[in-house]
Amino acid sequence: MEHQFIMGRSMTELGANPDSTMQDLMNLLGGADISQVLGLGVSMPLTFAYDAMPDPPVSPAARLASAAARRAPADGVDRISRLPDQILRDVVSRLPAKDAARTGALASRWRGLWRTAPLVLVDEHVLPKRVAAKRVTPGGDDASSKAAVAAASSVLAAHPGPFRCVHITRGHMASHQAEIERWLKLLAAKGVQELAFINRPWPCDVPLPATLFSCGASLTRLHLGAWSLPDTRSLPRAAGFPHLRDLMLSMIVIQDRDLNSLLDRSPVLENLTIISTQTELRLRLVSRNLRCVQLGMCPLDEVVVVDAPRLERLLLWMIVSDDKCPARIKIGHAPNLRVLGYWQPGDLQLGIASTIIKASTRVSPSTIIPTVRILALEVQFEVHDDVKMMPCFLNCFPNVETIHVHSLDADKPTGQLNLNFWQEAGQIECVQRHVKRFVIHEFRGTKSEITFLQFIAERAQALEKMVVMVASQCYTTAQDVKAKLKPLTCAEWANKGIRLTIFKSPSSDGASPTWNFRMASDFSPSDPFDFLTADAELMRGASTLRLKAL
User: Fold this and answer.
1) Within 10 Å of residue 128's Cβ, how many Cβ atoms?
2) Among 215, 342, 383, 488, which lies 20 to 30 A Cα-Cα from 85?
3) Is-contact 10 18, C-beta < 8 A?
4) What is residue 29's predicted lDDT score, i.e. its pLDDT?
């Protein structure tokens, strides 16, 4: 496993001796300096890592009482302080750490209560007023970092625990390495339940000590960012996370064996999210409880789903693959897999059981995944190999009911395929009998896109709704878009009663699908690809047409 060029080196070192890759990036950005290039490279995954964090269970912005409730009672009796200790502790536990500590000034009855209540520590909430609370992107150990580290140290030392939730995300931990192990020991001793610990780069691979595993007895949710994770080979067999249900790893450095060991040591894990690993990812999934796996902005070599009986969602976003050797996704035992995507036919290789799926693969019971209901693809419609792979790929999922296709602008077009290609592709089971909803994202109006839409229109007997989200740079007027879709009027629609909704994409460039890691791991909406198009008819400027209106 090769390290990427940014690992183990400070910004100063990279600036003094930029390698060829770094120099090319600096030139591409018009002579940008090293800090600008590195800032761009790290800010994006950091932003996604921060956005993916669940909101802490307390907020300093919350209103504590109505105006009427804030008025003193007419008889002057403090009835709240007469409540039982357990209720008062529950009140205190719902406050940010700074406000919880201040309750001791209310009355003698409240003194010391905050030390016996489960606490929520968010470094932003305990920063001094003079320090900007805004979360920062890459930088050194500035005033914000120093204040965040000092405040976290103070609260962790002062409160005996337990800690319901701890978010430490603003510290430049390369400058405070002594605190890392001390904090982890305190958190383990004080029963932390939810922990978000994100190092502020540079560097991006500060070692995280194996003391992390001492927190395992109490942790239910863990988010680690911009760390080099510990070697697990010397850990005791019993070390692990027996109650961990949610694991998120962002910008991490980890060896394959240690990642797989971490998963093996998390027997009840349900949600796994990995954002922008700094090393090529090889993942082996053997889990009785895992329900959702998200991989985003990762350099990917291979994912093997060996045995995951509860896995429902396998979600891929902005995957980085070697042009000469496409990344491989092998799906073995996953009898509940219902949602898959975004799949890139040209950059990802699909394996089902022992068969590698190719354009020439014949459909058989051993080459299908009948449980998938929602499928999303990224396709370069002006690249022959991408489009030629689609019929066989779709045949692997015979019961799909919703298809999302994100149309990518081809860097190196190799030509467009006409309607004959699709007509000669033969019957595609899911299109013919099961697809009820079809969405094309970033439609540009190319001939290859139009012929694919015609194919769907003519074959999809169960189709109820088609949504066309037009790329913003290709959207001039509604009438112009309708003119581009005019060839659809020549199609012999399999279902005459469908609705066709057309609207302008809210994305400025459409280079990659819009994504939200937090929403995608939420099972309440059934379709994680649909948060832009679920209510397409309500979008500003949307046109909803019946077939005859074309």
Assistant:
1) 11
2) 215
3) no
4) 52
In the prediction, which pLDDT does 2 show? 39
Residues 6+ away with beta carbon under 8 Å from 235: 210, 213, 261
Q: Would you give the DSSP letter of residue 110? A: G
Convert the pLDDT of each residue in 170-184 to its tens digit: 999 999 999 999 999
The predicted structure's pLDDT at residue 1: 34
DSSP conformation letters of 120-170: EEEGGGGS-TTS--S---S--S-HHHHHHHHHHHHHHHH--S-EEEEEE-S
Mean pLDDT, the chain, rounded, equals 87
For residue 389, which amino acid is it?
M
Residue 105, by phi and psi: left (phi above 0), alpha (psi -120 to 50) or beta?
Answer: alpha
Tally Cβ neighbours within 10 Å of residue 502. 23
Q: Is residue 225 part of a domain?
A: yes
* Domain residue limits at 134: 41-51+83-250
Give the up-direction half-sphere exposure of residue 142: CA atoms within 13 A in the CB hemisphere. 14
User: Is the residue at 209 inside a domain?
Assistant: yes
65 contact partners, CB below 8 Å, separation of at least 6: none
Task: Report yes or no: 87 and 132 within 8 Å, Cβ to Cβ.
Answer: no
Token output for 72? 């003193």
Distance CA 481, CA 472 (A): 11
Burial classification of residue 360, based on how many CB atoms lie within 10 Å of its CB (0-12 exposed, 13-18 middle, 19 or more buried): exposed
Indicate the pLDDT class of residue 486, thresholds 50, 70 and 90: confident
Domain count, the chain: 1
The answer as to whether 128 is a domain residue is yes
The three-class DSSP label of residue 367 is: helix
Rg (CA), the chain: 27
**Is 409 among the domain residues?**
no
pLDDT over threshold 70, residue 324: yes
pLDDT band at residue 325 under the 50/70/90 scheme: confident
Exposure letters 470-491 (e unless 16+ CB within 10 A, then b): bbeebbeeeeebbebbebbeeb
Distance CA 155, CA 3 (A): 37
Mean pLDDT of 55-60: 91
pLDDT of amino acid 400: 98
Single pTM value for the model: 0.90
* E strand or H helix at 459: helix 447-459
Residue written as token pair 């909430």 = 125
- pLDDT at residue 186, rounded to an integer: 97
Q: Which residues lie closer than 8 Å to 328 by C-beta, 6 or more apart?
A: 301, 302, 303, 348, 349, 351, 356
The Cα 177–Cα 227 span in angstroms is 12
